[in-house]
Amino acid sequence: MATDSDLIRAMQAGLPLCPEPYAEIAARLDIDELELHRRVNQLMSTGTIRRIGLVPNHYKIGYRFNAMTVWALNDEDVDEVGELFGRQTSVSHCYKRPTYPPSWPYNLFAMVHGRTLDEVNQKVESLKGLVGERCKSTEVLFSEKILKKTGLRLNSGRTENA
Amino acid sequence: MKSELSDTVVDLTDLEKLVINSLQGSFPVCAHPFAVAAAELDLDEATLIATIEDLQTRGIITRFGPLFDIQKAGGDFCLCAISTPVDQWESTAEHLNAMPEVAHNYLRNHQYNLWFVLATEKEEQIWSTIKQIEQDTGYPVLALPKEQEYFIGLHLEV
Q1: I need a surface site. Which of A123, A162, B120, B158 has the fewest CB within 10 A?
Q2: Helix (H, G, I), strand (E, B) or coil at A110
Q3: Considering only residues 31 to 90 of chain A, which have any Cβ-Cβ distance to chain B shorter than 8 Å?
Q4: Residue A28 near chain B (CB below 8 Å)
Q5: HSE-up of A122 (CA within 13 Å, CB side)?
Q6: Hey, is B3 helix, strand or coil?
Q7: Is ipTM beyond 0.85?
Q8: Which CATH topology does A65-142 take?
Q9: Looking at the predicted structure, is the pLDDT value of residue A42 above 70?
Q10: B31 has a chain A CB within 8 A of its CB
């Protein structure tokens, strides 16, 4: 019986680009194709699969400016501001993370993407307007280079032997 | 440093734009998913498959398939940062990129200049990997696991 981890390993490099990709994955897992459909739908309903589709290289499609905005907020404000930022269409990811004061005081992270520097700066300004005085300090970190992007993977050998 | 992904913006055809805009989320789960997705876009199956293949070969899309929430899948991941002297990031980046646990790695314009994501199957492996990186590189690692997720859902329109 294929486990969820087996399914994930079989599909994490992507779906084969052929007319019947799920049949090919099912054959690799030695399960019935309809069983694979059922399991994939189940993984989607639990959120283990977030979505199925393509992932663009945002640089190449024109989104050259990718800003990680970080915000130092009081603990009691983080959830409210996080939810507020998460509702903005300009924000693609929004997380609370631990702090290491004084060198790293920022507990809220929000990613903003844009085609031009102006576009990103405008989006950041509007976030600043929303957070107002609750923000003690903020920084914007632009990415200068993608050095590696393989997608998040379960790596097999080492883990199974551990 | 040679990066597998160049940052040159490419010109896209209308067909490529259509495919990129339409297929970031809801690829069907059925016997002939490319045929179904193609029909919705008024394309034929072979054209859709060939377009995706070409976009992938040219590095315009980095992958095609299911996107997993690895934490729900029983794995774990952790955003980390390292601060290297400005002229010494390349050797550290090369070291990090060679590690299978490093899923993403970005150079950013900050004192903490290398930002990378570790992905492992078990939480304790995150911490052993961080320790290993600190030993190998000599730099302390800022470990920033997510404590709460408020939103994730990137859709990039071209």
Answers
A1: A162
A2: strand
A3: 33, 37, 40-41, 43-44, 46-64, 68, 78-79, 82-83, 85-87
A4: no
A5: 8
A6: coil
A7: no
A8: Alpha-Beta Plaits (3.30.70)
A9: yes
A10: yes
